[in-house]
Design goal:
Layout lengths: L1 E5 L3 H21 L16 H9 L3 E8 L6 E8 L14
Antiparallel strand pairs: 1-2, 2-3
Helix pairs in contact: 1-2
């Protein structure tokens, strides 16, 4: 069974943030990134940051599917609508 839906509710945003953090965690570990030395890296994204991106026009969608009846759901997250995300590409201060 496949489900694709927009991420809208606060609980969805927190789950989406967990998926993003997990997806980028290996990169952060490999390069010794921390919230202190690289606060805008995606491995440290918060639900609030995702919500702010949504307010600026980003569309966040999630897809869930089961491979078989006895396996858990796999999840995929897609972020579109912003040419370059401020999560990984912060803008310089004016």
């Amino acid at each position: 069974m496949e489900i694709i839906k927009p991420v809208q509710r606060d609980s969805d945003l927190e789950a989406a943030a967990r998926v993003v953090r997990a997806a980028f965690a290996t990169v952060a570990a490999e390069f010794d990134l921390t919230p202190e030395n690289c606060p805008t890296h995606a491995s440290f994204v918060t639900a609030e940051q995702l919500a702010a991106m949504g307010e600026k026009g980003a569309e966040l969608r999630s897809a869930s599917w089961k491979k078989s009846w006895n396996e858990g759901y796999n999840r995929y997250l897609s972020l579109t609508g912003i040419e370059r995300s401020r999560i990984n590409n912060p803008q310089p201060s004016p």
